[in-house]
Amino acid sequence: MADCKPCTTPVDINPKLSTDGDPISDATDYHSLVGALQLVTFTWPDIDYVVQQVCLHMHDLREPHLAALKWILRYVHGTLDLGLHICASSQSDLVVYSDADWAGCPNSRKSTLGYAVFLGDSLVFWSSKC
């Protein structure tokens, strides 16, 4: 897929991932690519959700799942210059920033929490949860 046409979003925004479609006969490449994408989520946190979605179907792969995986690869191909860059730093301080919005959702009253961990100048982990 090195010469694929890039796309601007990590997932097709209209249809939901379906369990319909023809089964995939050989899942080896799919499993390998999904595993590689899980590693990529460390520097491309915007694909975290969609990679998790394609991981949900590893036990019963169908054509729509493969199409979703290809869509993610097209997005990554089109955003190679984006992402979090981990670089060498003379500092070795571990710094954590956090924020919370307690019961901030007006419908569910769920809280939103998030934090980011830096080692020197590089972001090494982040998380946000509702």
Q: What features would you highlight for this structure?
A:
130 residues; 3-stranded antiparallel β-sheet; 28% helix; alpha+beta
In short:
The chain is 28% helix and 18% strand. The chain has 130 residues and is of the alpha+beta class.
Can you characterise this structure?
This protein has 130 residues and is an alpha+beta fold. The chain folds into two domains: 84 residues, no CATH class; 36 residues, no CATH class. The protein is built from three helices and three strands, in the order αααβββ. A three-stranded antiparallel sheet has the order 1-2-3, with no helix packed on it. Strand 2 and strand 3 form a beta hairpin. The protein is globular and about 50 Å long. The two termini are 35 Å apart. The model has no long low-confidence stretch (mean pLDDT 80).
Widest sheet: strand ordering = 1-2-3
Relative strand content: 15-25%
Domain tally:
2
| Shape, principal axes of CA atoms | globular
**Helix fraction by DSSP (H/I, runs of at least 4):** 25-40%
Mean pLDDT across the residues is: 80
User: Which spans have pLDDT < 50 for at least 5 consecutive residues?
Assistant: none
Element-by-element helix/strand order: HHHEEE
Query: What is the CA–CA distance across the termini?
Result: 35 Å
Number of helices: 3
Per DSSP E runs of 2 or more residues, the count of β-strands stands at 3
Radius of gyration computed on alpha carbons: 18 Å
For the largest beta-sheet, the strand count, sense and barrel status come to: 3 strands, antiparallel
| Structural class by SSE content | alpha+beta
